Amino acid sequence: MNLTERLNDDMKQAMKSKDKFKLSTIRMIRSTIKNQEIELKRDLDDNEVLDILSREIKQRKDSLQEFEKAGRNDLAEHVAAEIDIISEYLPEQLTEEEVKEIVKQTIQETGASSKADMGKVMAALMPKVKGRADGKLVNQLVQQFLQ
């Protein structure tokens, strides 16, 4: 079952169980996916849906930080709950140690030796960790290893 089908099934289940919060979150995700499909005039594959899910989580994490800074715990809890629901659809997340190993391997593969090679490393690295690691963490680790 692909991600779009899984989202549809979970939406139906949320309707049946009257879980309004989960239902609204899934509808929001499906709306974003549908808008992208309309823009591209074709159905999205799982990788493209993963990109959308990752982007949605990143936006919510940014919002979460801002809400916490502003002391808006009510909004922070709401956004954190949305992150939990969206995270269910992402593949198993890599640990920091696993990401470090992948970063080291990629640096060796690309022959990078300085921060000037960072773009080359990131281009080779991101497809390997797509949807399974936070881009900010990956970026920090690459910078750390290229110093």
Short key terms for the protein model shown above:
147 residues, mainly alpha, Hypothetical Protein Yqey, Chain: A, domain1, Arc Repressor Mutant, subunit A, carbon-nitrogen ligase activity, with glutamine as amido-N-donor
Describe this entry's structure for a reader.
There is one protein chain. This protein is an all-alpha fold and 147 residues long. It has 2 domains: 3-87, Uncharacterised protein YqeY/AIM41, N-terminal domain (Hypothetical Protein Yqey, Chain: A, domain1); 96-145, Arc Repressor Mutant, subunit A (Orthogonal Bundle). 76% of the residues lie in helices and 0% in strands. It has 7 helices and no strands. α3 (46-69) runs antiparallel to α4 and α5 packs across α6. It is globular. The model has no long low-confidence stretch (mean pLDDT 92).
SSE layout and pairing:
Blueprint: H1 3-16, H2 20-40, H3 46-69, H4 73-87, H5 96-110, H6 118-129, H7 135-145
Helix pairs in contact: 1-2, 3-4, 5-6, 5-7, 6-7
Protein name: GatB/YqeY domain-containing protein
GO molecular function: carbon-nitrogen ligase activity, with glutamine as amido-N-donor
Pfam families: YqeY
Quaternary assembly: single chain
**Segments where pLDDT lies below 50 for 5+ residues?**
none
The span between the termini is: 43 Å
Shape: globular
Total count of helical runs of at least 4 residues: 7
Radius of gyration: 18 Å
So, CATH architecture of the largest domain?
Orthogonal Bundle
- The CATH class designation of the largest domain is Mainly Alpha
CATH topology of the largest domain: Hypothetical Protein Yqey, Chain: A, domain1
Q: Helicity level, as a percent range? A: over 70%
Major pleated sheet: none
Going by helix content, strand content and strand pairing, the class is mainly alpha
What is the typical, i.e. mean, pLDDT?
92
**SSE run:** HHHHHHH
